[in-house]
């Protein structure tokens, strides 16, 4: 039994290096990807500002229209990048149905990639639209896109109440309770020689937490209370005058306990709200993609976009 437990610990330690390295590489890729696209969008906005501040009726006569108009080469490329990013948003959902190995990225990586594309995609599409409010059929698609983006942030907030491991694997509630017990035992072992009063008070902030939200407003209250307790835990552990290594372990352990208690407290409400959220988010996304497809086909076959990109006179 002891050998089995020891071997599991050894395997976990050996695997921690590549997991950490992979996480660093994933973070580096996302930071570079988001930074590059954000930089491009900023440069376009900055250089095109003299065009964007001109009234809509006077823009066709502007010398900058050949660069920043929706039908210009640059404008079309902005639209293509924005559309591609919105298509990339679907990769996160598609990955759930594809048996891809872990080498293709963790769930956490694809969720963050999903969020980056979901934010930057609309930015490029707005630049493609010359920063003006669209109307008619395209206006419907625009507001569908805005609502999809906003509802996506809300859905991610609700999904955050589902307990997770460090690798973002979602836990069921029984696993979360087991993990909570393990963390409590680990804390007792790590702080056996410390100031018992401060450590006991910090532990009580986690152990005595008892709040069961039933509405979205109460979820917000729950988050506020968790943030308050996290700060108090840090203060109490600092006063306990723990050795640096023990302090870091104790802080990490207690804060993870608080996060688990937050997840378990808000799990039922978040799961119920997610059912209603999916009834709004998915139809809006379908409408957005359908309108975008119609717009692209119209631009290619009747708007002369392909000829503009190829440099062919119409």
Descriptive overview:
By secondary structure, this protein is mainly alpha-helical. It has 12 helices and no strands. It folds into 2 domains: about 130 residues, no CATH class; about 150 residues, no CATH class. About 75% of the residues lie in helices and about 0% in strands. The longest helix has about 60 residues. It is elongated. The N terminus is likely disordered.
Classification by helices and strands: mainly alpha
N-to-C CA distance: 79 Å
Strand proportion, as a percent range, falls in under 5%
Computed Rg = 25 Å
Structure annotation, total helices: 12
Query: How many discrete structural domains?
Result: 2
The gross shape turns out to be elongated
Major sheet summary line: none
Give, in order, the helices and strands: HHHHHHHHHHHH
Give unreliable regions as ranges: 1-17, 165-170
Q: Helix amount, in percent?
A: over 70%
Strand element count: 0
- Mean pLDDT over the full residue set: 81
Quick rundown:
This protein is mainly α and 314 residues long.
Please write out the topology.
Blueprint: H1 2-47, H2 49-52, H3 65-68, H4 73-88, H5 90-95, H6 107-128, H7 136-159, H8 173-190, H9 196-207, H10 216-239, H11 244-301, H12 305-310
Helix pairs in contact: 1-6, 4-6, 6-7, 7-11, 8-11, 9-10, 10-11
């Amino acid at each position: 039994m002891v050998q089995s437990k020891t071997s599991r610990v050894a395997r976990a330690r050996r695997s921690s290096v590549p997991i950490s390295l992979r996480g660093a590489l994933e973070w580096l890729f996302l930071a570079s990807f988001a930074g590059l696209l954000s930089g491009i969008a900023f440069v376009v906005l900055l250089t095109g500002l003299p065009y964007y501040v001109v009234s809509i009726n006077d823009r066709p006569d502007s010398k900058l229209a050949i660069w920043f108009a929706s039908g210009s080469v640059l404008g079309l490329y902005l639209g293509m990048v924005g559309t591609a990013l919105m298509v990339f948003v679907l990769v996160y959902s598609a990955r759930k149905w594809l048996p891809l190995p872990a080498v293709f990225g963790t769930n956490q990586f694809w969720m963050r990639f999903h969020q980056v594309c979901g934010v930057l995609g609309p930015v490029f599409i707005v630049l493609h639209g010359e920063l003006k409010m669209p109307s008619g059929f395209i206006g419907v698609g625009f507001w569908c896109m805005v609502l999809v983006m906003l509802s996506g942030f809300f859905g991610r907030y609700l999904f955050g109440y589902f307990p997770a491991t460090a690798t973002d694997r979602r836990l069921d509630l029984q696993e979360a309770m087991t993990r909570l017990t393990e963390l409590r035992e680990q804390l007792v072992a790590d702080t056996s020689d410390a100031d018992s009063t401060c450590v006991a008070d910090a532990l009580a902030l986690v152990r005595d937490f008892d709040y069961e939200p039933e509405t979205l407003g109460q979820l917000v209250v729950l988050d506020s209370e968790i943030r308050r307790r996290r700060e108090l835990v840090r203060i109490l552990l600092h006063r306990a005058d723990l050795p640096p290594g023990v302090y870091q372990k104790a802080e990490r352990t207690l804060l993870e306990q608080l996060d688990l208690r937050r997840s378990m407290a808000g799990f039922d409400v978040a799961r119920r709200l997610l059912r209603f959220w999916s009834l709004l988010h998915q139809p809006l996304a379908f409408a957005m993609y359908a309108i975008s497809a119609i717009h692209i086909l119209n631009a290619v076959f009747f708007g002369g976009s392909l000829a503009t990109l190829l440099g062919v006179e119409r």
